[in-house]
Amino acid sequence: RKRASHIVQKYVRPLPWLQHRIDAANHVQHRKCLAMHVRLTDKASGREKKNYSQYLKHALVYVQATQHRYPVYLATDDARVVAPIREALAPALLIMQEDTVRSYSDTTPVFDILSNDRHRSNTEALVEMYAMAKCHFFIHGYSTMSEAVVYISPQLHNYSVNIDDPNQMTEDELRELIIQEDMRDT
After folding, report:
1. β-strand 160-162 against 137-140: which pairing, if any?
2. What is the dihedral of CA 133, 135, 140, 143, to 10 degrees?
3. DSSP conformation letters of 13-34
4. What span, in angstroms and rounded, lies between the C-alpha atoms of 27 and 21?
5. 1, 18, 54, 62: least buried by Cβ within 10 Å?
6. Which long-range CB contacts under 8 A does 146-150 form with residues at least 24 apart?
7. What's the CA gap between 139 and 56, in Å, rounded?
8. Residue 18: exposed, middle, or buried by beta-carbon count in 10 A (0-12, 13-18, 19+)?
9. Structure pTM?
10. Rounded-to-integer distance, Cα 140 and Cα 74, Å
11. 120 band by pLDDT with thresholds 50, 70 and 90
12. What are the angstrom distances between the C-alpha of 113 and each of 52, 68, 109?
């Protein structure tokens, strides 16, 4: 992971048109946000699908610990989770790539929906990865996209909750880490 991250950091840079889309999706400066990657539509290889509430409970810890000062960036392939997450977090705290294609099915991934437009599918995925990498904290499950985010922003490894990991950080541990980091930044 360290070597891959080093290579990405050294050689990979979004072109200006892509950077513009990334900044439009996540306008936050100075990493004051939490990234949440909710992947539900096509979990494979025997991986258990988690309900979005497993992600949301950690996001609510972040919102409460930061006293509603910093936003949550939501990246998801499932259109059905956007409204309940937006409602739970308060609309003003949720930021996301609004014009992206999302699935309404448990089994149809977005890349299948956009099979005739690979450029759009790939662009939307890159925007999501780089927008999440702009944040200080990260909630995710096992996925190649989440792994790519950590390659782009390696410090997220120590500031993330992987809900698929049985040894994941507890809500109390996350709260303490957020408060500690928030105090360090002030």
Report:
1. parallel
2. 0
3. ---HHHHHHHHHH----TT-SE
4. 10
5. 1
6. 146/37, 146/39, 147/1, 149/35, 149/37, 150/1, 150/5
7. 9
8. middle
9. 0.89
10. 10
11. confident
12. 21, 35, 7
